[in-house]
Amino acid sequence: MKTKLSMIIGLLAASILFIAIMNEPSRQARFEAAMEIWADEIRDADGLGEQLLRVSTRDEMEFGKQAADEVIAANSTRFADERYVTAVGNAVARHVARKDIVYEFHVIDSSEINAFALPGGQIFVTTGMLAFARSEAELACILGHEISHVDLRHCVSRYQYQLALGKTGAGPIGQAADLARSPFIIGYTRYEESEADEQDVTMAMKAGYDPRAMVDLLTPLEHLNGTSDAAPKPAGPVTEAVKASADVFETYLQSHPLNSQRITDLAQLIAGDNVRLGSLQVYEGVENYREQVAMNERRFPGESRSW
After folding, report:
1. Do residues 29 and 117 both lie within one domain?
2. C-alpha span between 233 and 79 (Å, rounded)
3. How many domains is the chain built from?
4. Are residues 128 and 194 in the same domain?
5. What percent of the chain has pLDDT over 90?
6. Containing domain of residue 164, as a range?
7. Domain end among 12, 33, 52
């Protein structure tokens, strides 16, 4: 790990390089390269802070449970499909790195198409998102993405400074209540979304699901958000449904920054795994999703795909 001094030097060097590049005639072509260098230094600086103020797993889970209770209390209706969501989520969560986190999966009643994670393994998905998804593989990728934000410590990093230093002036319950008021708009950075995408692909494959479902899920959102550089695709029922209900996607796009490069990178990552893994069999689960019967309980004919 870098020392504090080398971290400061790295940030200064990255700043000087950034200014130099932006003053060159070719700055447009080299802008992204400069931003990547700057992002690397910021990640290292964040990492140092996380190491110094790291919250224990026990405290993270306690805080997340209190926050989750606040969200659930505000959305008291329980849904039968929580059992199904939990079965799919647990299949993916078996492949996390942080084995000491116990994951819990919740469904809340909201027309907004969204999913989010709270610290300590509390994963939420809205009824709007469940209505929008079309297969168990898509649900697995949605849950895997949120699980990855917990596993990679993206989620807790937003609160660990306050939790560790007690700067909020409130106890854990008060902090949980503050968090529960706006869980839908906890935004992640571009590199955090990319890291979560990469781990999501790996976990989905290990669980036996087709990770290409994530691209299928995000592509309509990309066109809705106006970030696609590709030629418009022919309109289909899903795309038309997205356009007709654009307002319900607003919080998803706020909390999960979306851009054409992210989807391109995700597709390239999946394609690379396709070449590397060759004959791997993966599962889509359209019928499973319709019947709310998890893949590990029943496999329907025609749902397996060659990788």
Report:
1. no
2. 36
3. 2
4. yes
5. 36
6. 57-306
7. 52
Shared-domain flag, residues 27 and 123: no
**Which pLDDT value is given to residue 165?**
55
- 45 and 74 co-located in one domain: no
Is 32 in the same domain as 64?
A: no
Q: Per-residue confidence at 70, pLDDT binned at 50, 70, 90?
A: confident
Tell me which H or E stretch contains 283.
strand 281-283
Whether the CB-CB separation of 180 and 124 falls below 8 Å is answered with no
Residue 95 identity: H
**C-alpha angle 152-249-180 in degrees, rounded to nearest 5:** 55
Contact 71, 126 (CB under 8 A): no
Name the pLDDT band for 83 (thresholds 50, 70, 90): very high
Q: Helix, strand, coil shares of the chain as percentages rounded to 5?
A: 65, 5, 30
Q: Do 171 and 302 lie in a common domain?
A: yes
Smallest Cα–Cα separation from 246: which of 270, 267, 220? Answer: 220
| pLDDT for 204 | 94
Pairing of strands 115-118, 304-306: unpaired
How many CB atoms lie under 10 A from the CB of residue 178? 15
Average pLDDT of the segment spanning 239-245: 43
Retrieve residue 129's tokens: 């998102």
What is the tens place of the pLDDT at every residue in 119-154? 999 999 999 899 999 999 999 999 999 999 999 999
| R_g of the chain computed on alpha carbons | 20
Instruction: State whether 67 and 22 are in the same domain.
Output: no
Are 61 and 46 in a shared domain?
A: no
